[in-house]
Task: structure prediction
Amino acid sequence: MSTATEKTIAVVKGLIMDGVAKANSGHPGGAMSSTDYATILFSEFLNFNPDDAGWFNRDRFILSAGHESMLLYSLLHLCGFVSMDDLKQFRQLGSLTPGHPEVHVTPGVEATTGPLGQGFAMSVGFASAEAFLREKLGPDAMDHYTYVLSSDGDIQEPVALGAASLAGLWGLGKLIVYYDSNKVQLAGPCAKVDCTDHRKVFEGLCWQVIEVDGHNHDEIRAAIKAGRAETAKPTLIIGHTTMAKGCATMEGNHKTHGEPLKADEIAATKKKLGLPESESFHVPTDVLDGFRARFDGLRAKAADWKKAVDSKLAADSAFAEMWGHVTRPRPELQIAWPSFEPGQSMATRVAWGTCLNAVMDSLPTLVGGSADLDPSNQTAKFRATYGDFAVDGYGARNLAFGVREFPMAAIMNGIQLHGGLMPFGATFLTFSDYCRNAIRMSALQELPVLYVFTHDSFWVGEDGPTHQPIEHVSSLRLIPELIDLRPADANETAVCLDVALRQEKHPSVLFLTRQNLPTLDPAEYPAVVDGPRKGGYVLRDCDGTPDLILIASGSEVSLALETAKLFKRRVRVVSMPSAKLFDGQPETYKNAVLPPEVTARAAAEAGRTDGWYKYVGLGGVVLGVDHFGASAPGKVLSDKYGFTPENFARMIREKF
Result:
């Protein structure tokens, strides 16, 4: 171990202790056990541009152990991305150093982490995006490593192992995960909750596994080099470490995982580490200069890369075209959606598949797949056309996720965070529960990921209540910044897809039917062509002020249209494919669609009724399902649950 490296590590540990102590909140123990590895990685191996934290070909570093955030912030300070004042504002309102890393807050943070396991899973998405783009653009334009720092808690979360299985299958050789195995977690020793032999597990998942003393610097360097040398497999470096390594009296103590160290312990630890005992946030000039000694070389690498890309853009038209797709802002996408025959009976899942098949050639950065439901999710042709990623080559565009909904969603987040691609993933709506926390992370990280959920109601039929979503649409609408899209027919499906793919910061969820629905005629209902973009719109109107307004989404829009015919009153039918988009419209527009003076309102949706009272009022009528379904043909259930024009009309007449 070099003296300079030891001193830098000591300084980083001092910053960790001081930041957590000043905030009186945080996790010093794990951060200190990981400091040796992370400091060596950042100071000797990580390729980045000191002048541009967002340089496209940089190595990605994902702190999956997000509770060790003060370690990352300390290293980002040495990199020049975070100021000393920022470090002193750890966990304070509006600071660049929040409690867990947040991607849109702090320069140098690649992913928002905190929910354990998801950083690991997202890293598989990062590495997949790199492999795909390296194949498409060439290694002179895309060629970087994805490094991850994970913890015992990360590995215990099954989402990590699900993603690891795919990483091994896909042979992501530029993915290097360091597992800081300090064998201690918040509640005590890991041995109380885990007996896993991680070497055997990860070797069984087709990973290269290297075990090191996580405080031996030569072993750490050798392991990183070995990970970089292995090109056919991802690498797991198991670093056997001591919790709170370097502490005066609390090494190995589980209390250091989630509690600030006391003042006397900090002072004694600083003395042990050779730091000034009475000085907080101590960063001597020689440490800063030594850490940044290779920065000129890093800048030169970034400059050479830019020259190579510019030269290739000028000389290679195929590269220039692909580069244009990779870098084009989403609102500028050129998409020619298919048209649909009026009156044709078509499930909206089939409409989605038709749309996907029509545009997939013109959108070469659209990648994704299904959680083992390709025929049901209508992704079978996409898979047959472009092949399975890695299995059929790294330029293949279908991601065969297998029965891994949660890893699928987290991997999509990683792909989107990497940049350059447009990911989508599909499964049955009822299994969105498996994806839910990753969907929440999509919204929190402002990622325009597309989730395609088919089989959206009790109309699934014979599969029964386990496969019939009841509360799922309503529940997903509760996630802030998530765009809900439940189209009424094939035309609305195409518009909803256009809305989703043009998003820059919002993820979208498509709720699609298995059962056939009538395709609306734009000649009869011209608003269907563009109305869905506003979330809710007048589909069928009447002369003058309506006496009654019927509101519906998805498959219930056709029900509302049929119900309207049973009244001699003036009836307006409003299609509301997206509550999120409608709520975001100006009040003048919302009042034009739903005039406040018209209080006779009814809504229909094959799901929970709760959210619809916002639009119909507490005195309004809502036809929905607030109970679990049953195993029977969809038409039988439709009659049983009252989803008929006659019953809907009866409910309305009894109220109004």
User: Anything to note?
Assistant: The domain at 3-297 is CATH 3.40.50.970 (Rossmann fold). The longest strand covers residues 175-181. The chain has three domains: 3-297, 330-518, 534-655.
